[in-house]
Amino acid sequence: MPMCYLTISFCGVHSNSFSYREFAGGKNAMEIMWDLLTSTNHEWTKSEKLISALEAPLMRLCARYLLQEKKRGRALDSVANFHLQNGAMIGRLNWMADRSEKGILQSGGIMVNYIYRLENIEENAQSYFSTGHIHASSDVSGFIKPVKEHEQSRL
Is the dihedral angle over the CA atoms 44, 33, 14, 22 positive or is it negative? Predict the structure, then answer.
C-alpha cells in the first residue's frame, strides 16, 4: 500500500523504524498530525524526518495561537499574557528547544523568546491594554502571513 501524500509534508517520509501507515488508514492530514503529537511515547520526536515535516505547520500554529487566540481581548496563553502586559514583544519561536517530556506535552518542544526593549515597554504595554495589539518581530508574524496562491496549490 503506497504512502498517502498529505498536505503538511508527511509525503515522502518513509522509514522502516516507525510505521507511518498505522496513522494513514483513511485519515486526513490533521488527524494524522494529531495522532502523532498525542502518541504517549512521543515517537515523532525520535524521527528527524518527522521533526522536519512537523516544523513548519507547528511553528505556524504556535504563532497563530500566540498572536491571534484571545480571551476577552488578551492573549490566551497565560505566560504570553504576563510578558505582553509588562511591555514585551514576542521576539522568536525556537523549534524543539525543550525536548523534555513536559516541553513536548505543553508546546511540542517550542519555546518563545520575549524581548523587552526599554524604549518600547510603555508603548507596547499601553497598546496591549487598550486594543489587545500584540507586538511581535517580523520573524514571528511572518509565520501567519497569508499563504501565497502558488504555495496554496502545493497544499
Answer: positive
Q: Residue for cell digits 492530514?
A: 29
Nearest in space to 153 (alpha carbons), one of 7, 31, 33, 3: 7
Q: What is the pTM of this model?
A: 0.76
Contacts of 148 (CB under 8 A, 6+ apart): none
CA distance 111 to 93: 6
Output the CA angle 53-56-61, nearest 5 degrees. 125
pLDDT tens, residue by residue, 66-124: 999 999 999 999 999 999 999 999 999 999 999 999 999 999 999 999 999 999 999 99
SS3 98: coil
Q: Using an 8 Å Cβ cutoff, are 76 and 94 in contact? A: no
> What does the buried/exposed string (b/e) look like for 37-46 if buried means 16 or more CB atoms within 10 Å of the residue's CB?
eeeeebebbe
DSSP string, 105-153: HHHTT-EEEEE--TTTHHHHHHHHHHH----B-HHHHGGGSPPPHHHHT
